[in-house]
Amino acid sequence: MKRAPLIAALLGAATVPGFAPFHLFPLPVVTLAGLVLLWQRMPRRRDAALAGFCFGLGYFLAGVSWVYISLHDFGAMPAPLAAALTLAFCAYLALYPALVGLAYHALGARSMFATLAALPALWTLAECLRGTLLTGFSWLELGYSQVPSSPLAGFVPLFGVHGATLLTAFSAALIAHAVQRRNPRVYQACAALLLALWFGGWLLQPVTWTRPAGKPLTVSLIQGNIPQEMKWRADQVAATLDDYRRLVEATRADLVVLPETALPLFLQQVPAAYLDELAAHVRDNHGDLLIGIPEDGVGGDYYNSVLSFGASPTQVYRKSHLVPFGEFVPLRPLFDWFLEAAQIPLGDFTRGTRAPQPLAVAGQQVAVDICYEDAFGAEITRQLPQATLLVNASNVAWFGRSLAPRQHLQISQTRALETGRYMLRATNTGVTAIIDPHGRVGQAAPGFTTAIVSGEVNGYTGATPYVRYGDAPVIALALLLTAVAIWLALRKTAKIRG
Question: Are 413 and 435 in contact (CB under 8 A)?
Answer without folding.
Answer: yes
